[in-house]
Amino acid sequence: PIHGNYHGYYAKRPSPHLSDTRLRLLPAGTFTNATVLDVGCNEGWVTCEIAQVYGAAKVVGVDIDESLVEAAWRRRRAVWSLQAPPTTSTTTLHPTEPRAAAEPNISDSPPKKKRKRTVPKNTPTTQAPVPPATQQHDADPVPDLPARAYFPASCLHEFGPQPIPPSIKGEVQGERGSGRGKTAFPHNVSFRAADWTATDIPEDKAGYDVIVVFSLTKWIHLHALDTGLTAFFQKLHRVLRPGGTLVLEPQPWESYTKARRMSPTLKENYSKLLLRPEGFGEVLREVGFAGPVRMGCGGEGGEYFLALLASVGFG
């Protein structure tokens, strides 16, 4: 994977089944009603989470590896199959709370013993028992969205992913109803296979409110050198709408050492690099971004922690 196109990458990250820690570092509302581009989306884990959890109106994931893009489409369907079904009830269940949660016992006295109720054999029941809802341990930042792990993963393994119904015009994300609007998950997320550094995709023409680039700059840098990475930053600025946000996670320089061993070309290019990740902020400002602002550390693969940068673009 000389382009960083690792298969099973997100399954190897810390707590792969929970929310991505890097997204939680961002200010609340970063993705709300936004058009988002995820460059180097891999198998679509982050792309789907932004579309499902953070209230984005439209999310496009792009990756150079066609097989990863195919896996991302499968991920989209799998995630949708496990979320809570839409409801028209006036009572909304917070996704972090179990359904019909019992009130805590605040009495100091010990609870009374309950008598066992004897039920004769072969007695027909008038109502089937209702299984308790699966409690979600990962808090979703948008309370009105469906619980992400409503159904256990065993349902997916036993019954397979469920078919996605067509979208319904007029419904919006988070609205009580069928959950089938154009901006409701999974209809608000799509994927494309392309080398985005060298090729435009149709969605680029309208531009984006937020662009996410996680763990990709090292590979662009090693393949395209300093000039190619600068050109990549320039393209990001060109397709970002005025006032939009670039979320950038650059890999540290120490990680380049291992990557250069993957091919003679990368090893040769490594020796030609003058720009260092700690200098990316200055390049971004020269390109036309305001900032960047260091948001914190998210970590990659559990091996080391990386800085997360956010830049605000202007026309």
TrEMBL record:
EC number: 2.1.1.-
Gene Ontology terms, MF aspect: O-methyltransferase activity; RNA methyltransferase activity; snRNA binding
Superkingdom of the source species: Eukaryota
Keyword match Methyltransferase: yes
Keyword Transferase in record: yes
SUPFAM superfamilies cross-referenced by the UniProt entry: S-adenosyl-L-methionine-dependent methyltransferases (SSF53335)
UniProt similarity note: Belongs to the methyltransferase superfamily.
Protein name stated in the entry: RNA methyltransferase
Organism: Ephemerocybe angulata
